[in-house]
Amino acid sequence: MSKRLGKGLDALITSLSIKEDDKVVEIPLAQLRANPYQPRKTFDDEAIKELAESIREHGVIQPIIVRTALRGFEIIAGERRFRASQLLGNPTIPAVVRSYSDQQVMEIALIENVQREDLNAIEVAIAYQAIMDQFSLTQEELSLKVGKSRSHIANFLRLLALPEEIKDHVSRGTLSMGHARALAGIKDDAKKKELAKLSVANGWSVRELEDAVQQPEAKGKAKPKPKSVKRDPYLEEIEETLREKFKTTVRIKPNKDKGHIELAYYGKGDLERLLEILQALA
Q1: Where do the record's region annotations for Disordered lie (predicted)?
Q2: Which architecture, in CATH terms, is 7-116?
Q3: Residues with catalytic roles
């Protein structure tokens, strides 16, 4: 757990652990429903089947955490165990009943998943936006809650402005977060869609897509795949490190033993974000 995670939320996550004096009860699966604030929309079917086989052999070793609802109970932690038990046809599941507010439930669902990297980039962005909207949080306030930088939050939220078909590619993994960031800097949606389609069809790397974004568009012609230029692997590795550090397009342009580094920004706010990072490094 990040050191920046607030003490209150740290305590919330800690409250999900099962203690020896907790009262464990058997709750009928029919009385349970999924956490309404669960940001994760897809579950790995194979992983659920493997978990079901483990439960078949050993039972549910760790009880799930629930809270009472108007009808039955809501799952706070343990939805995979619940789904695996359903798959087995088990009538009940061991659970510990705790009291949580709606805000606590949303924060737990978001932070638990994001910290464990269970969500794809679009699900993370939707979850961030949902908790900001629900509880009137700024990007800065949310960044403190989840233990991430404000620029990290801003980069994910920018993905929500992408056309639906591009967001679908990111959700399915056919385009990465790096591809999405490169496309998010383009103002014209038609151009975004065209480059996304070409990137998927040709299997472009993030760097190849960034090259295509910067190429002047030829009238009446589909944009060709950028020419592959043999580059120094060492410089490529540094570019990738800087890209992750600054969360933007980075180019190293060498000239014998010298050269320069270019950082791309997408608006005044993004420029100020980069300046903050550079000033902190000075």
Answers
A1: 211-231
A2: Alpha-Beta Complex (3.90)
A3: 79
